[in-house]
Amino acid sequence: MSWWSEFANRIERDTPLGRHTWYRLGGPARYLFRPRDAEDLASLLTRAKHEDIPVKVLGSGANVLISDDGFDGVVVRLDNDAFCTTTRRGTSLEVGAGVDLMPLARRCSEQGLSGLECLAGIPATVGGAVRMNAGGRFGEFGTVVREIEVLRTDGGVETWPHDRIGFQYRRSDLGDGIVLSAQLELVEDDPDRVKRTFDDMLKYKERSQPLADRSAGCVFKNPVGQSAGALIDQAGLKGARYGKAQVSRRHANFIVAEHGATASDVLHLIDLIRERVRNVFGTELETEIEIWKPVRARRRDE
Length: 302
Ligand code: FAD
Ligand code: EPU
Hints:
This protein is α+β, with helices and mostly antiparallel strands. It has three domains: about 5-80, Uridine Diphospho-n-acetylenolpyruvylglucosamine Reductase, domain 2 (2-Layer Sandwich); about 85-205, Uridine Diphospho-n-acetylenolpyruvylglucosamine Reductase, domain 3 (2-Layer Sandwich); about 210-290, UDP-N-acetylenolpyruvoylglucosamine reductase, C-terminal domain (Uridine Diphospho-n-acetylenolpyruvylglucosamine Reductase, domain 1, Alpha-Beta Complex). It has helices at about 40-50, 100-110, 125-130, 160-165, 190-210, 230-235, 265-280, and strands at about 10-15, 30-35, 55-60, 65, 70-75, 85-90, 90-95, 115, 135, 140, 145-150, 155-160, 180-185, 185-190, 240, 245, 255, 290. The strands form six sheets. It has a five-stranded antiparallel β-sheet with strand order 6-7-13-11-12. Strands 1-2-5-3 form a four-stranded mixed β-sheet, covered by helices on one side. It is globular and about 55 Å long.
């Protein structure tokens, strides 16, 4: 019996991860697990910890670059019904970690519920948006998150109020915690006005970013007081390529993947950009996207 037998009908083996990411890049996950519910996930975490097998959660894969060698551990996807429900009570929303945020933000804006318009054009699940505090110049997701339910790696569940989550620019203090659900507090407003704001923000993104191309959004965080995109642009790198990866001509902080690209192409281009921006401006760029590297040698016993 292998360690994962009790999860067998929810586990896929050696599954290509590219199809689960916006980049469409990356090798296989040794195990891809779709838990039935939080208890099921807690059992898996306990077993994996015992076996010393790393576990990562993948949301909609919009902020990750997965290595061509894949991930030698368990990748969890919270796409079963138990994680994808939305319940509205007045201006409060209880949303599962697997809920797709963009359609939710659109629906809320149509119903005159304000607070999620800043997510127009940002692909994300609730879990991924909490971890990354997704947003931009128009606002951040953390602002509307009142509390979250978190599963710890030892299987315990806790409720974290807003202040404990530690929302900052494109990060939070979740650590190893897995978001199970979030409670959002929105504000009632005129539906026409909220919808117009949503549409304006979406238009801004469509005009200034290559939303139809394969990417993971902005590759680098903005250094304090500066725009990484503007720096890369001024360093003359728009259109620069490595293999089939290219610095977007529309927004220089996006690296887009063309047909036939590999994760390695994108990684090389990231190095090239950092080096050029360091040489030209003396600024060290820090990646915003999360790079998944293979973490452990394959076990031969399974
Ligand atoms: P993933 O990319 O799947 O994961 C991101 C991180 O969250 C990983 O560490 C993952 O392990 C973790 N995670 C996922 N689910 C959970 C969970 N349940 N519990 C704990 N951790 C979890 N981002 C912005 O902020 N602003 C933008 O304007 C923006 N524009 C974008 C435009 C495009 C075209 C694309 C492709 C991306 C853009 N991004 C933007 C990046 C991305 O949309 C955000 O980072 C988003 O929050 C990622 O959510 P996700 O569900 O895809 O998370
Ligand atoms: N700019 C250039 N050249 C470029 C790109 C931008 O000169 O190639 C200039 C713009 O003209 C503008 C300034 O840089 O004057 C800022 O550009 P923009 O408004 O596009 O904002 P940004 O700082 O580049 C941030 C977020 C985006 C978010 C937008 C809009 C980061 C790293 N990026 O971009 O988030 O969508 O604001 O809210 O914080 C993401 O995080 O993945 C992401 C795409």
